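Supplementary material to the annual report.
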Amino acid sequence: MEDREAASVSTQKLHSMDSLKAACANCNLRELCVPGGIPIEELVKLDAIVAMRRRVKRGESLFNVGEKFRSLYAVRTGFFKTRITSNDGRDQITGFQVPGELLGFDGVATEHHGVDAIALEDSEVCILPYNELERIARDFQPLQHQLHRVMSREIVREQNVMLLLGTMKAEERVAAFLLNLSERYRHLGYAANEYVLRMTRQEIGSYLGLKLETVSRSFSKFQEQGIIEARGKNIKLLKMEALRKLISATKS
Amino acid sequence: MEDREAASVSTQKLHSMDSLKAACANCNLRELCVPGGIPIEELVKLDAIVAMRRRVKRGESLFNVGEKFRSLYAVRTGFFKTRITSNDGRDQITGFQVPGELLGFDGVATEHHGVDAIALEDSEVCILPYNELERIARDFQPLQHQLHRVMSREIVREQNVMLLLGTMKAEERVAAFLLNLSERYRHLGYAANEYVLRMTRQEIGSYLGLKLETVSRSFSKFQEQGIIEARGKNIKLLKMEALRKLISATKS
DNA sequence: TCGCGGTTTTGATTTTCATCAACAAGTCAT
DNA sequence: ATGACTTGTTGATGAAAATCAAAACCGCGA
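Predicted assembly:
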């Protein structure tokens, strides 16, 4: 449990195309995982420490609660969920991560991961060893600043989830969820109004603080209203404006 | 709105004992706002940039949504709440801050504050100009690392609030809230089983995703059960173990 | 292709909490 | 100290979502 990183890198390398050399300078996700104007020569330095990639199969975890924190991860391809678990066995999905997004910031505080990160489809991540990241960030302020920005962005994101969980009704939450996914796919260059869900209704419910039946009913209702088309995991947003209106409902 | 900092520092100085020179090296909260082993000579550098303190009266805000982000703030004395507001006027309290805690990380991402920070009693904060903080953190890794740890801690805290909001029933939330405050007061050296609430039932409710009546009813019920004594804002925790048990209820 | 396990939908019922309302208790300013 | 206003308590009722249950659907491996 304490040393999954080293173990998986060495063992998996033998089996699959695991642990490829990364190359930030060429990565087409660069603007997402390391946005801002970082010049090419500094990206080369980043390459030097972003030593490895790692593949994670669907259903497997990238890291688990309690594991020693060593690295951040940038999702290259695939889809992840992060899940927090309490002493007494409650759990809650705290986020879904798409390509270009960073994982693992929860581990910095305690040096141990506070959530599980689980692949919802076969995925690949870049491994960013944290000590080295801090070291080169020290010599190069823009990277340091960027690191802070990304952490801050995560704080802001979570605050917005708190707002959702604390103040929104079931259908509003579901609408917000669909629009949020849409926005993120759009940002990745995919269609904003049509996508395939990678997670189950149960997982959506866990993220939104709802039961799976409630999520399903919301989908059905939106469908009846002609706002979306939902056949299983295939989602089409037919009236995005209607979805937006649902969120900003008559709520003082 | 854009330049509250400069304005308040210069104007308030004339009136009150505002804007005192800070002194991290002597501050008895040092272990809280800058824990870890930062040697005294580096604290002097920190002093050099932690130029000012600022007083905020009860009900006034330290900063507001949309204001330009310039500084982090360390609570020296008093009590704050942070509040996020959505487009359509929903709002939610995202946290309460006691002495030794840092405020303002939400502003790093966008360079503008994403929440309001409002004093719930007359308070005093140290102003930590962010640019300078980044600059000296660069020359001194332990400080940089500490900064990361504090941000990460905030991420973890918010994840736990998400868990609370997503999975707990009303009384469980209230119990968790009381215990959390207790723990934080204890950490400050105050009694863990007896304290005065600084916020209203409405504000507690907002934080917990509940209505004020529900909070009030939970208090009353705990009181009937002899678990707490609540007379207005004065709280005594009579059976902490019972409170803990309430949280880890029979929930698969 | 068939059948199986997991997922999703839909319905009926129950639980929880919000809402509405009235009053009590505190707090503040004068 | 007094009155006005805010905050808190408690009760009655209603709305929203959870729970329980059954059936339909889907994807996958034998």
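Chain B touches chain A through 53 residues (CB under 8 Å).
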